[in-house]
Design brief:
about 500 residues, alpha/beta, Aldehyde Dehydrogenase, Chain A, domain 1, seven-stranded mixed sheet, 15 helices, globular, binds nicotinamide-adenine-dinucleotide, oxidoreductase, MeMal-semiAld_DH, methylmalonate-semialdehyde dehydrogenase (CoA acylating), Aldehyde_DH_dom, Ald_DH/histidinol_DH
């Protein structure tokens, strides 16, 4: 791989990496140092239109390319990503802030989607039934839609683009990707590998930018479907705007994830899981643990939870032994601090305060240390708003039923966890809880790619998820064929004005 994208993020249009003609650029900053790593263009609308036109043209031949040939490119891509994993992780940590191990995890979770795309053939098969009437058979085709677009957030610059374009293009679509403008460099390395793997010119295109570029994708007549992952406000806007323009849309959005701790849970394992899920990636995961719901006697476990959280090391992501890296930007840090301040003002008990953390050698980094609030109530901002930082709120309830009622009353529905050693309790919980992704003794239940990401309620708009079988449904149109072949050429038949087939 070359380092050609390490300074200026290029556009990728019709198989070529090109410099944008825009006059508007944004710096890409290292969140641990504020060092400028490069810059990203806010592409012009003409450039967006050229990318869409290239994708439209490429679709004409790409959707006719045999599915085995499309899968073979994915096979090559998975090999290239694996080979270049460390190099991509280095860039990802520099621009995003997460630890190197977590950066590799980010790439690995996306890589698994590419692996799954290598066997899409069995998922894109249609259905067939013979003899629905005399000489009449019915069958379905899962046909690609045309040009699809993806809009991705800053927190997983490898995994989330890989949720989208491999499945979209292996199904026979062409694609325009709009990565996060905050950390596009690692995403561009993946795009470079896709080109090297043999994705033909125009099949995958990349434009950079913000609202203007996104709105163009949502309204352009040649875009058939939009996958969005990001905040609730923007995801709702994208869903509404693209929906009004007749597109198929899926928006995976913000969250407030709870874990319920039952008194019979394995204490040590549970507390380790809570600390990892709340503070890993500095809390910047859509599936991060935000609220611990302690049932009954587990209220006595809180001190030990705090002790464990105190041992976490805050440092730059590339430093060895770092547990918590910086949050993405000074603005994100200011938002997290403001929310912590609101928790104090609203009367929550601040057991661990990460506001004033100092990191030697990285005085300019956007660091926030692990923060724990006890005695949180549902009317507080720290309960109601997605914090997207290393902040855990603790709520105490008496029973499992109380915990379920509390969580079901929260508008978000991305992920939830339960810690218990009772199968019966787990079964009651999984049935009664109204959240799309449930972990039983698993704090961050992100499904593997053979399933789909199934966030629900306020965390998602649209029916189908971004990878797995649901992605094949999302990126294809079911066409149903009803055909009749006359085996008896002598038969005359008769005019029939009823609806039945006979
Ligand atoms: P964001 O909504 O700010 O940005 C997402 C994308 O939208 C980016 O590409 C950005 O350039 C673009 N964008 C920003 N403002 C826009 C506007 N006004 N109009 C049109 N487009 C705009 O999100 P983020 O801060 O990058 O990511 C964090 C959010 O993403 C969190 O809320 C997190 O929960 C969510 N997220 C959700 C999932 C999920 O699967 N549900 C996964 C990861 C992240």
């Amino acid at each position: 791989m070359s380092n050609m994208h390490l300074k200026t993020a290029k556009l990728f249009i019709d198989g070529k990496f090109i410099d944008s003609k825009t006059t508007e650029w944004q710096d890409i900053l290292n969140p641990a140092t504020q060092e400028v790593l490069g810059r990203v263009p806010m592409a012009t609308l003409e450039e967006v239109d050229v990318a869409i036109a290239a994708a439209k043209q490429a679709f004409k031949t790409w959707h006719l390319t045999p599915i085995q040939a499309r899968m073979r490119i994915m096979l090559k891509l998975q090999d290239l990503i694996r080979t270049n994993m460390k190099e991509i992780a280095g860039v990802l940590t520099a621009e995003q802030g997460k630890t190197l191990a977590d950066a590799e995890g980010d790439i690995q979770r996306g890589l698994e989607v590419v692996e799954h795309a290598c066997s899409v053939g069995t998922l894109q098969m249609g259905e067939y039934i013979e003899g629905v009437a005399r000489g009449v058979d019915t069958y379905t085709l899962q046909q690609p839609l045309g040009v699809c677009a993806g809009i991705t957030p800053f927190n997983f610059p490898a995994m989330i683009p890989l949720w989208m374009f491999p499945m979209a293009i292996v199904c026979g679509n062409t694609f325009v990707l709009k990565p996060s403008e905050q950390d596009p460099l690692s995403t561009m390395m993946l795009v470079e590998l896709a080109a090297e793997a043999g994705v033909p010119a125009g099949v995958l295109n990349v434009v950079h930018g913000g609202k203007e570029v996104v709105d163009r994708l949502c309204t352009h007549q040649d875009i058939k479907a939009i996958s969005f992952v990001g905040s609730t406000a923007v995801g709702t806007h994208v869903y509404n705007l693209a929906g009004q323009h007749g597109k198929r849309v899926q928006s995976m959005m913000g969250a407030k994830n709870h874990v319920v701790v039952m008194p019979d849970a394995h204490q040590e394992q549970t507390l380790n899981a809570l600390v990892g899920a709340a503070f890993g990636a500095a809390g910047q995961r859509c599936m991060a643990l935000s609220v611990a719901v302690m049932v009954g006697e587990t209220k006595n476990w809180v001190n030990q939870l705090v002790e464990k959280a105190k041992t976490l090391k805050v440092n730059a992501g590339h430093e060895p032994q770092t547990d918590i890296g910086p949050v993405i930007s000074p603005r994100a840090k200011a938002r997290v601090i403001d929310l912590i301040n609101s928790g104090v003002q609203e009367g929550a008990e601040l057991l661990l305060d990460g506001r004033d953390v100092k990191v030697n050698g990285y005085e300019n980094g956007n660091f926030v240390g692990a923060t724990i609030f006890n005695q949180v109530s549902t009317s507080m901002r720290i309960y109601k708003e997605e914090i997207f930082g290393p902040v855990l709120a603790i709520i105490h309830v008496d029973t499992l039923e109380d915990a379920i009622a509390l969580i079901n009353a929260n508008p978000f529905g991305n992920g939830v966890g339960l810690f218990t050693q009772s199968g019966a309790v787990a079964r009651t919980f999984q049935n009664a809880i109204d959240i799309g992704q449930v972990g039983i003794n698993i704090p961050i239940p992100v499904p593997v790619p053979f399933f789909s990401f199934t966030g629900s309620r306020g965390s998602k708009l649209g029916d189908l998820g971004p990878y797995g079988k649901q992605a094949v449904q999302f990126y294809t149109q079911t066409k149903t064929i009803t055909s009749r072949w006359f085996e008896d050429t002598q038969e005359k038949g008769e005019v029939n004005t009823t609806i039945s087939l006979r």
